[in-house]
């Protein structure tokens, strides 16, 4: 792959060169996020290096660390694209293994876990796009990019050419590094061209399936709604930071996790009240579904269902 070869050797972009695995991991973590590295060959000495160019909302980098396994609990609040300038990589996902190399890359969304292995001769081209930058480029919803990226497709050629210009021309690299205004304009064009190349419009993004983190949060809420849950509890169960969870619910559910929890409790309360079996009082139902303030429960119940909880219970007893 032609992209990022100049960035890889550009002295001003070089972040580190290291023969210490822990040092390499710590330095990569500073511009990406904490992760785990596992050498695939005990015989091989670690030889790691990284270059990185930061622009507003966007980071472009190259990483080489030999035959290595990579594990990440979840991608933080950004979209991560990985290609191989040289060598190859393999990503183990729930849907099966994905091989990258040559013109084939992978896109990982916020909240996704990462398990990958890279060949001894692999040098990665990594793209970090802040979730906020992606939302600005596709305003209706946070877009879910296609997992596999094939640079041989004609629709992706403009984006690939732009990436080549930004990472293979010394004068352009210097300009992007020095001038934040121009860097920001290039970054916006970079993200917009990627969305066009993936044929994702605002309308298409609206129809995208919610990310796994949102679904994990919803499953946790459904199973544990009666417990005294906090936003941090839900984010922990979803395996994403609170901020990422809030963004996911806002852009895929037009809601918040705590409102989702409240509505799940109210729906369960109504089912218990109209069922009537073994129900003695409204207060009992409120407590059973996780409400500890009867007045607030009654107010929110009325707002959602148009009647007081006592009316629902009374009607069930008369039927």
TrEMBL record:
Residues 215-315 form the HTH araC/xylS-type domain. Keywords: Activator, DNA-binding, Transcription, Transcription regulation. It holds the Pfam family HTH_18. GO terms for molecular function: DNA-binding transcription factor activity; sequence-specific DNA binding. InterPro entries: AraC-bd_2 (IPR035418), AraC_XylS_family_regulators (IPR050204), Homeodomain-like_sf (IPR009057), HTH-like (IPR037923), HTH_AraC (IPR018060), HTH_AraC-typ_CS (IPR018062). This is Putative AraC family transcriptional regulator.
